[in-house]
Amino acid sequence: MKILFNGCSYCYGAELQNPHITRYSKLISERFNSDDVNISANGSSNQKIFYDCYKHIQVESFDACVISITFLERFMLPYNDKFLQINPSSFKSTIYDKLSKMIYSISDYKTWYEYHSFYISMFSEYCNYKNIKYIYHFVSEKDRDIFFNEFPHKDSLIYKTFNQICKENGLAKGPGHHPLEDGHRIYADYLISEIHNKI
Q1: Element (H or E) spanning 37, and its range?
Q2: Among 131, 159, 132, 135, which residue's Cα sits nearest to residue 145?
Q3: pLDDT at 185 exceeding the cut of 70
Q4: How many other CB atoms sit within 10 Å of the CB of residue 119?
Q5: Who has greater pLDDT, 175 or 105?
Q6: Maximum Cα–Cα distance across the chain
Q7: Nearest to residue 45, comparing CAs of 143, 156, 130?
């Protein structure tokens, strides 16, 4: 089974010594005798994640997509014929601090989650059209818990987050708070069982 993986730094394997060998997407792909097709990037917003997924499944065939939903306050803006990734929590200047507070306040409102629901629903329907299976999982328990009631296609959602699995198993993280090799190995086993159940 050929799987497309996408997400942010958690999916990419940030802070791993050899991410292309030890990240969970590689371990899962090996289990299914397939190449590791992981198009994630550090700092990606959910807009970028779904945009890149659309591009890939239009030109390459996949049996399934495993999408990691990143922190909801991130977003993407067009800039000079490119897309600029905005990650408010990483900004330090006064202007960016104001922007961060604004985005965090917006994210408390139902409309912000409906906005993300639109992206997820559209991508899910496109996968249905292309006969591609799909599952989603969150990086953050906070985002999952707030967004859960608004989440479309709950039957395709894996409830436990990457962070949650690491906490339950008492696993240390790197200086940048990303899971390390043991975390990716255990999360790969968890996702494999969920893939068998849902796909």
Answers
A1: strand 37-38
A2: 159
A3: yes
A4: 17
A5: 175
A6: 50
A7: 143
Domain boundaries, the chain: 3-198
Closest CA to 22 of 146, 197, 187: 187
Instruction: Report how far residue 139's alpha carbon sits from residue 75's, in angstroms, rounded to the nearest whole number.
Output: 16
Each residue of 27-67: pLDDT tens digit?
999 999 999 999 999 989 888 899 999 999 999 999 999 99
Query: How do residues 93-139 score in pLDDT, each as one tens digit?
Result: 555 556 556 655 655 555 667 777 888 899 999 999 999 999 999 99
Buried b (16+ CB within 10 A) or exposed e, 21-54: ebbbbbbbbeeeeeebbbbbbebbbbbbbbbbbe
Neighbour count for residue 123 (Cβ, 10 Å) = 24
* Average pLDDT for the chain: 86
Tell me which DSSP letter residue 3 carries: E
If you compute the radius of gyration of the chain from its CA atoms, what whole number of angstroms results? Answer: 16
CATH number attached to the domain at 3-198: 3.40.50.1110
Instruction: Give the single-character DSSP code of 89.
Output: G
Neighbours of 124 (CB within 10 A): 18
